[in-house]
Design brief:
192 residues; 7 strands; 8 helices
């Protein structure tokens, strides 16, 4: 919202439309110029695979932030007593995934007890309030959307999955889009 406010003041003639799409569709949308830029939060391994796959298609990018996965749960969850989660104890707990695309290495473990992979914040909040479910998510998502009285977070000791928050754009971007990208980067830096 801060970026949108600044942009509308500096460029009142520019209209911003936000569309949420699956991560698998974002790269193609940028290549085909269906959008001027795209914000993506994605596993670093998958992100780099996609960058390499489309390297000849004039995709530019800036990594805004590197993140880690955490476990989020209701503060009344029976799992709240667990100090640190591990891959072993995660394996038996029913969960959801927020804003995560599992890489091959964790595919079996991730999907065996995963109810859903989704970017719908309100759905995850409702699921977490059932108290017997946890959600794996990027730490910044917890900080911005879940941190408060109802939810707590825990680390996962041996889960070495890095999350990248990045902006994608077509290399032949115009000055306004370039300025908007700079505003996004400045706002992210101020928040961390």
């Amino acid at each position: 919202p801060k970026v949108l406010n600044i942009c509308s003041l500096q460029h009142p003639y520019i209209r911003v439309n936000i569309h949420e799409v699956d991560a698998s569709e974002i790269f193609q949308a940028v290549i085909e110029k269906n959008c001027d830029l795209a914000l993506i939060s994605i596993n670093e391994h998958y992100f780099m695979e996609q960058i390499m796959k489309f390297q000849e298609d004039n995709i530019g990018y800036h990594v805004l932030l590197k993140d880690k996965l955490i476990v989020c749960m209701s503060n009344k969850s029976p799992f709240s007593e667990i100090e640190h989660f591990s891959m072993e104890n995660l394996g038996s707990i029913m969960r959801t995934l927020y804003n995560v695309i599992p890489i091959e290495k964790f595919h079996k473990l991730t999907y065996n007890n995963t109810l859903i992979c989704s970017n719908d914040i309100e759905f995850h909040k409702k699921m977490l309030m059932q108290n017997n479910i946890i959600t794996l998510m990027p730490a910044i998502a917890y900080q911005h959307f879940f941190k408060g009285k109802k939810f707590i977070s825990k680390s996962v000791e041996d889960l070495n999955v890095k999350i990248v928050h990045a902006v994608l754009y077509n290399d032949d971007l115009n000055d306004t889009v370039d300025h908007f990208i700079k505003l996004i980067r400045e706002c992210i830096i101020q928040e961390i």
